[in-house]
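User: Fold this, then the next.

Assistant: Folding the first:
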Amino acid sequence: MLMKRRSVRNFKTDEVGEDVVEKLVRAAANAPTGGNMEPLSIIVVRDAERRAKLGEMVGSQPWVKNAPLSMIFCLDFYRLKRWAAASGVDFRGDEALSHFLIGYADVMCAAQTAVVLAEDLGLGSVYVGTIQYVADEVRPYFEMPTHVFPVILLSLGYPKTIPRGVRKLKREVVVHRETYRALSDDEIIAAYDDKYGSLDENAERYFERTFAEAVEADKQDTPGWVEAYREQMKTLAIKNNAEFLFKLRYPSDRMVELKAEEIATFKRAGFDCFGP
């Protein structure tokens, strides 16, 4: 089952029943948690207006609006701080990097547990990490108090289509026996060329493997993504897969520049664990 899992962005209009939603949230809440503290909250979003607004906030991603169910997985230190204060003790996890990292991992374990169960129940799902970058907009809209932060958005529904052409790195590239085995430059380049394919292909076929969001946006509510990115590839003279990823999709300089903005976003949410 898990070997067939793919990120699904094209959903049927069928509703996800409340019994199924309850199974998903129960499984997610039963995921592993460091110190058994459960710094997790899940906001279940089914209302069409809210789904549409959420889709706009995370960058006009039509699958968020079209999916009948979204779940926002939040790191929640608000509840822990309230509990500690009411019990006469101090919890300062919002200032401790170790608490933050463990809590962040807890949230992702919970989300992935929901993904695994969703697959077993015949649902498709897609993670949307962009929600972190628009937390200043998301938090007030969903009435999140200080010390609650949206870590990941999971959109789910019954698949209309399931991507088939997504390649992964071969196991011998990512699995190391007993100790880490450093690959040569040639081995690394060959591994990623095998994963991503050739830049000389038809743009849509190439994007189906490397940038499925562009293809799905074209097919749904936001046409023109494939052509726009194809033109940017020409402008930037993209010559290989690494350049496509680190000059176009995730420009290295811009990703580093974003660090200050991202830390400020966490601080505005009450998380001050990243140093001065």
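Now the next one, as you asked:
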Amino acid sequence: MKKLIDINHNGDAHWVGRIALGAIGGFAGTLALQALLSASQKWLPSAAPPLRQHPGEFMVEKAEEALPEQARNRIPDVAEKAAAQALGVGYGLAFGGLYAALRPRGGSPLLDGVMLGAAAWAAGYLGWLPALGLMRPVWKQDAPQALAPAAEHAVYGVVTVAAYDWLQERLVHAE
């Protein structure tokens, strides 16, 4: 099989290709995370994080506030909803790409994946979500509300790293 991503003289994939593969891995992880979120909302609603507003909707609203009112009123609801959902996917792609930039050769899906998921969870749940007032700090939440998202993000990380490693094996290291 022909290599689909250029390899430099050190045997490493070009950084743009690596980051793209990491983003694809992040997409796979995001799909897994979204499936877990949907399942937990259905079967364990008490574990849902106490969000005051969907983060993507909040960001879209803030972006629209920067527009003139006439332009703001012309944006269809379906476009707003799509943009809000795309922001969540972009978040997952960004962490996958960041992983690939920091770990060009990949690593253990379990160890690296749990660490990646913990980093993504911490950035949101310990960082920008409470800082923007979108949720109470995790230490002020019920245990299931704090722990379920951490576990879901661990799965995100494991799937992301496993997908990145799989893609690396097939597209970069293929002979």
